[in-house]
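Researcher: Here's a chain I'd like modeled. Treat it as a single chain, no partners, no ligands.
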Amino acid sequence: MPEFTRETELGSVTINYIKRGKKGDAVFLIHGLGMGKDAWLFQIRPIVKAGFTVYAHDSRGFGKSTMTEFPDDEKKAFEFYSLKNDVADLAALMEHVGVKKGHLIGISMGGLIAQMFCVTHPDRVISATIANSFSYPHGRILYSTAAWELAMEKMSFAEGFDILLPWVVGEKMLENPLFETVYDQMKDMYVKANSNWCFITKIRAIRARTPETLQDRVKEIRVPILLIGGSDDILTPPKYQEYTKSLIPHAELVIIPDAGHASILDNPDAFNEAVITFLKKHAVNKKNE
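Model: Modeled as a single isolated chain. Structure tokens:
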């Protein structure tokens, strides 16, 4: 898989990514906490088939991208793994692949990155989809992620996966008799994408370096926005997306039925339909039609 390396004040950063498709507008997929680019398995092919070029990358600290640890320097660690630097990495990826302007699709943590990118690089965004995310540090987010920290400090990621699972996957998926057949695949995907230290540090960095004023900056967004929630998302419930819509009145809002926090996995058909309809509506390159 292709990758590129750039030098920063805090050291070298290598970003691993994939590209699929050769025509139409560029679409950048931004994964959530604990995930990697492989999380977009059910989205990449349908979006390419709809006439777009897709890029998906591992954010720093996950997958095959840089996973540098700073165990003795918390300040440096928080800065290195800040969302600000995730935004910088995305801008660098766009530069590397020669794309001046693209569509963003971010889920959970990726939705935070997409929001911040829209605020700081509005001239580089055609549209943005913000899925299962939030614009304010609501209490449930703070307390649940703090509990995840404690779990990952005391057990391996493979063991901790079972702590995360009920928060991420919807109830319909958990009750599906076929779920047992995909459980091992999901667990393997998460374990391969993570180290305990990077996972814990990312949570702490987001909490320390993502100010409550983000909600004020989000009000500046003027590009087309699609907000997606999951009807069974207990981590970032639909009221969180409704709150974000109150900050971005022009945003469209779609709630995916029978989907938890991982709506891209719980109900990929409904998710893809909503996203592709939105992408085509705002496509610049009319080869998409």
